[in-house]
Predict the 3D structure of the following.
Amino acid sequence: MKYRSVFDIIGPVMVGPSSSHTAGAAKIGRMARKLFGVRPERVIITLYGSFAETYKGHGTDVAIVAGLLDFDESNKRLPESLQIAEELGIDISFHIDKNTQVEEPNTARIHLATGDDELELVGVSIGGGKIEITEVNGFSISLSGSNPALLVLHHDKYGSVAEVAGLIAKYEKNISYMEVSRQKKGSLALMVIQTDEEIDEGMAAEISGLPNILNVAVLS
Amino acid sequence: MFRTIEELVNLADQQHIAISEVMIRTEMETTGRSREDIFSKMSRNLEVMEQAVQRGINEDIKSRSGLSGGDARKLQAYLKNKQPLSGTVLLDSVSKAMATNEVNAAMGTICATPTAGSAGVVPGVLFGLQSKLHPSREQMVDFLFTAGAFGFVIANNASISGAAGGCQAEVGSATGMAAAAAVELAGGTPEQSAHAMAIALANMLGLICDPVAGLVEAPCVKRNAIGASSAIVAADMALAGIKSLIPCDEVIDAMYRVGRMMPVALRETALGGLADTKTGRALKKQIFGSDAQSSMIKEQ
């Protein structure tokens, strides 16, 4: 089940013109921003499939940048995101890749950097404003979308996973699926956690305050 | 919880409740949120839809490209001054569907139902039927839950994405959802709702997504318009006792498989259909220039 809630179908409330190419694109950009944690200095965005063919008409480029500015899909400033990003001095470049074959038609790869910190994320807009995240920093992640998900970027140190799991238990949420991936021992790692219950922002904020936790993003 | 239209109709029949009520209870169960919370969120969506309709029929809406805007108002003026060939409720619905999509094309605020490109059909039908059926505010919110329940099954068993399944997955789904919800609002049974959706969706099978210049304007606005009219006709047919020969779940499955067979040029890439006509190509060139790009963009 890719869609879980009636509000995935009747919703979201959004700035037009396309739920997949505008609202979904904004959500992918915002997930990247949340996981990166701060406003990026440099961004490289690659669009594939239908995104690459029709981004101009749908404002896909504008919407992803709006998401990177932490605007949600109903933010009335969404159409002005490119000017706002320029005023803020964010260096943004777009690559339109019509050749690479992608599994899902609306796919975007976003590379963010500030100083030496980098993050790369691949998101897919599956229709009606619903998105999936398929890759973070080179790790393939499998999120079915059937449950709310938490993405937690953290230092690979003992106890991090237990602390996060303990906090989720304190909120009386049940973990239905979890995976942890890292590039190498002791480096940055990513927890992907799905729960049976909705994830509230309060819990996400508390998790991000735990030791060794860098950033937390909620995919509802 | 329901996964098919058959299960949805059975749940409603067994418990002697409306489809909208099945959807509300399912939402409470899966999200753990209260009835009041869920109902008020849907009420807010209804308000957004109403504001978009009102803007579209009263204000001078024009999209940035100039390809769409102002047609909803033309229909309202026609309704006021002439005797329409079809019917006033039908054309009022059509006008309100267009109003929504014109506001959407102008980067206004809308509620996706199930998508932004197909956002006109459901509110068009709902606000068009308002003058005929005089629903309470609660019944109008319920209309959205019913439409959502049918859309939920389509989204999970087929697709609501034009890039994945063509326009049949977007305006086709919206038309089926609106037809089913119109039946409930008019006092029909859950089974009649399912037949209305099957009849409406079956009529949309094979519909491609071919936006001129890649913009969610032409033919999208007019496809929502005719979608709203089809939804009301399909609802009337089901209310008259007409059944779909092919069960609703099988029509949804057929829609999914047709979408899988559809070439990529006809799935929201603006490479085929109306987008690839002489006029379509000329409009694209006129709006975006030959291949003039901002310095930010590199194509490969």
Remarks:
- The mean pLDDT of chain B is 95.
